[in-house]
Request: fold
Amino acid sequence: MIFELTEEQQMIRDAARDFAQNELKSGVIERDEHQKFPTEQIRKLGELGFLGMMVDPKYNGAGLDTVSYVLVMEELSKIDASASVVVSVNNSLVCDGLEKYGTEEQKEKYLKPLAAGEIIGAFCLSEPEAGSDATSQRTVAEDKGDHYLLNGTKNWITNGGTASTYLVIAQTHPEKGHRGINALIVEKGMDGFTVGPKENKLGIRGSDTHSLLFSDVRVPKENRIGEDGFGFKFAMKTLEGGRIGIAAQALGIASGAFELAVNYARERQTFGKPIAQHQAIQFKLADMATQIEAARLLCLKAAWLKDRGEPYAQAASMAKLYASEVAMKATVEAVQIHGGYGYVKEYHVERLMRDAKITQIYEGTSEIQRMVISREILKD
Ligand code: CAA
Ligand code: FAD
Reply:
């Protein structure tokens, strides 16, 4: 068993670390405060190849492995989880899904600009009444021969306002249940497609979350991904990879908070010595470090399985379940270690604590990850 990163993986991790320090850090508090999307930073991440990291270079991707993707997600998320969720959605929910299941025409038209970071994508599964219970889709894609007529509402869509290309899951044959669902590529600007108001959120406030409304939107048949009725499996398969991205985001939030806590504990003096010399603080740091390392290993294991072409659904869910819980615990402890300073914005840890919570909710709540894991266990 080799735990060493290749030289290339180390280089990519260092590039992401530099980018986070030099490009993301300075404006992160202001973007959080004003719910400002990191437009310029995302453009630069696209130029660096971080928006189509695992896509084949023939479709404008960087052709890297999933382990590198985890490393990049961790580094970006240490500083700005609002920027990193854009990276996660574009890479693993949009580009990966299109590359695996799209036609050559769809890859030429949509994947190439998405992987190059020229445009951004969104993945639209959740609805006002269909979140965890994702098979109960109310959005309808009626088969009209050469096109689908799309009607319904999607909720909570990341990149909802900034995206140009949307992968929309909708029901075509209600009598077939989840086997009647399709995945359609919808373009911003199609008649009848409206972006709802931006959500005012607890965390990842720089990211752009909207509801989407579809009213008699004509989507050409050639925009369907896969065979008729493949849409639910498309969503589930694609989310397997997405959960690795969010697990790595949670890992980054936790390790960002940990680094801040260690630095602060070394500097802050009470009772005549740095608080790092009080055993109560040392034990907190020890627990945080241990849990973060365990989360990192779960993330890397899931990525490694994916890179080897082995089944990884259970590993991805374990990584997301554990890393998101570590993110919550570590950020709460980081605020505690900072005392009153942890409660104000300049010290960053309160933001990381608010950002951590979403990792237990999106791309399948912790309860849903436990369902996926236990089903895999009991399957055998
Ligand atoms: N791969 C392939 N097929 C799968 C699959 C997988 N990983 N998981 C399920 N399926 C198939 C099943 O085999 C079954 O098909 P057949 O009947 O043909 O065999 C079908 O899907 C239905 O499966 P279940 O009976 O297991 O379905 P269920 O209703 O019990 O739900 C679930 C399963 C895992 C709970 C699923 O509904 C789920 O994942 N819910 C959470 C939704 C979610 O994660 N949403 C995230 C939205 S995106 C997002 O959040 C992005 C972001 O924030 C940034
Ligand atoms: P519900 O499904 O109503 O769940 C409510 C509670 O009940 C949860 O605690 C849940 O775990 C629990 N629960 C539900 N069923 C069970 C069960 N069977 N057993 C035990 N507990 C259960 N969706 C997208 O499609 N695309 C996106 O880009 C996207 N981005 C998002 C960004 C943000 C900021 C947010 C908040 C959400 C985003 N989502 C997105 C939606 C997200 O995936 C859903 O919110 C999530 O899947 C949960 O669905 P729900 O909110 O409807 O909660």
